[in-house]
Amino acid sequence: MTARNYRANFPIRLILLLPLIIIFSLSCGGGGNTASPNLQENPMGVAMTPPNERNALAPQDLGSHVIWGLYTMIIDQDTHEIEVVENRELAMHLNVKGILQSDWWCPAHNCIKIQFLNIDTDTNVYTIKGTLVNPSHFTGYDVRVIIFYGDTLQHDLLNPDDYTMLYEPDDDINPFRSYAKTVAKRQFKAFASYSEIFEMYIPPVPGKFKIDFAVDASYPGNCEEPYELEDFGFDGSIYPDDPGLDGIDQGLGSVFTEVEDWQENVSEVSVDTTPITGGITYLAYNDLLDRWEASITDAMDAPPGDYRCLIAAYSEDDPTLGLFNYVIITVDETPPPAVQTISGMVVDSFFMDWLDGSAVTVVNQDLMGFSPDPVTVTSGEYLVNVITGIYNITVVPDDITHHTQVVWDVAVTTNEDVEVDIGLSDPYQLDPYDPIGTYAGYRAIMGFAGRVVDDLGNGIPYATVELQSPDSYSLSSDPQWDVCYEQADENGYFSMLNVPVQAQDIDPFISQYRLHVRAPGFQETIISPLPAFVDQTFYNVIILSPEPVTSVVWEDSFETTPTDWSLSGYYHVQTYDASIMNISFSPAYNFVVIPPDEGPIVGNIPVPTDGANYLWYGVEQDGNFLGSWDPFQGPYTGGLSYSPHSGMATSPSIDLSGYTSARVEFDMCYDIESQQPASFDEMRFYVVQGGFDYFQQFYNPFTDPGPNYWPVSMAGWNRTVIWTHFSYDLTSYVGDSINLRYTFSTDDELYNGCRGQFIDNIKVYGQ
């Protein structure tokens, strides 16, 4: 509105001496305000900003609104006196006539009472009690005192109920306080009296300060526009994009408000987010939350700061009238570059099926740190951008049978892309090859994951992680500890998906595990004890230190044939041939089900770890260790031999005289039956000295998952063959010659249609 001339016609002089401790607050002036989206503060630190510029639904009419009066409050800051007069020029300008100062309706001229409660001279905040009396015989509804701003923003109502355009010739809005808010339908009945507290910032100026205000009511019923905006706000994190860094976007947030409307026919709710989004954001109604809301992002790359954005709500009854307020939207600093990621697969822990639709939530253990938004598994994979920190991952399946899995303590360092594969258990999973019942698999599982690094934090490629349990039971003559193995990838990451906590219903629960971690050229590290908790995965960063400098005493990768090893049974030196495939997997027989994670080998024998040859307990023409067998046996038998068989592989003599310490390292993998694997297809390693065999390790897993037509490898039940690395201290044997001995025994003729045992790259080191 334009500037106004004030005349003290028909004055109401309410002159009060103000104690120094008294404070008051209200808004002054009228007139237009330009857009200024960045939040400003007046000298006492209170936010005050001209309203956002908005395309109003003009021209407005007054609808059911009637004016009870247009007034000017004159505050003398020197004498602490206040005077209220009718603003006749403003009334004439707007062509309205009030009743509160009418000699007819209010002959005592006491229908408006202003009482100062307090003035804070440090902050210039005034607290005023404004009392209205209805002198007429009519009931008014939704009575408001509207405080007009000045042509330049000088004062501000700090506790407005909302804002309105009423009695403004332009598109500006002004704050108001509503009366009779606790009365049914906000009825201001004849001769009733109500009070409201106004808190206002008034700038310290000499002399008199003028504030224009209006008293508005609706008649003969409630106002046609919404009457209250409440519980509005902004959630989320938005920020400018950094085009120079990968993984940065503008974030995501939600702006929301509740709208109270007598007619319950709100037609439009919007927020002027122009500085942030480039335009008006229109909100949609959420039935569940009973509010209006919309998602926004910092599409305009608005700089960090607080933005005071105008909310507008309109009703179908009169879409030219609106109700307004402001919501503070915070644009945050752009987060650190999300060049780090956590990614991996989410699959069924046994059958490796993709569990698409599962929700993956990654939470920073630092409650004040950055946590990414949840993601959904697609094509079996998930990926989130993170910053350096330690995180917990929760995976919630998109079905009712798989169990939720939690991964603890995932450590992410600078510029590191962490890989964690997660397997979810489904104890009621049907066996696809025996759909009549569920498979005889693990009843309770967990996982282990992590990374193997050197002293400098660099990943150690293809390290071996061996999992043992002191709770494991023995079904053989040798102590049985092994559970399963895993080989880290080229960056040192490993994930063990189906570690049993209980194999069968009759088996005891495992309470703890221990990890043996090895890699060529590094000292073995043992981590123990590690707790066992169903449907949880623990993440460990494992540091390996280099082995002391030693020399190679003896080595053999079986690159020469005939060999000087002593071999019996089906042990032989095999040259790798990609065409050799286990016929048990072939459609012609289907004795054994091919593991779902076969990858590139698809039923073939594995590729050697060194050179072209390795030691194999198996038969080349069959690709397994069936030996003599009946070709007419039915499918899914596991492969039946005519009789049990066994073999032994003994190295040539290795001279350890002259050494003070020694060790042996080699690579091994196997593929054997899953029916009582701790008691059949037994594999052992010995050191032979002076005619005696000194037992070193029994390699079979103690778990008994079954069924017999699923193989078990070092990676676990229903897993493909993987190479693992072993290291044994030979210091107790130095000063004499030794032999290395490997043994394999089927123990019976059942379930021998698997690929057998492979050994390669044997090295004996001495110092």
Structure in a nutshell:
The chain has 767 residues and is mainly β.
How would you characterize this protein structure?
The protein is mainly beta. The protein folds into 4 domains: 12-218, Immunoglobulins (Immunoglobulin-like, Sandwich), CATH 2.60.40.10; 228-331, Sandwich (Immunoglobulin-like), CATH 2.60.40; 340-543, Carboxypeptidase-like, regulatory domain (Immunoglobulin-like, Sandwich), CATH 2.60.40.1120; 551-766, Jelly Rolls (Sandwich), CATH 2.60.120. The chain contains 2 helices and 51 strands. The N and C termini lie far apart (96 Å). Mean pLDDT is 85; it is low at 1-60.
What number is the mean pLDDT? 85
How many strands, which pairing sense, and closed or not: the largest β-sheet? 8 strands, antiparallel
Shape: elongated
Uncertain spans, ≥5 residues at pLDDT below 50?
A: 1-60
CATH topology of the largest domain: Jelly Rolls
Strand content: 35-45%
Count the E strands: 51
Distance between the termini: 96 Å
CATH architecture heading of the largest domain: Sandwich
* Tally of structural domains: 4
Helix content: under 10%
- The top-level CATH class of the largest domain is Mainly Beta
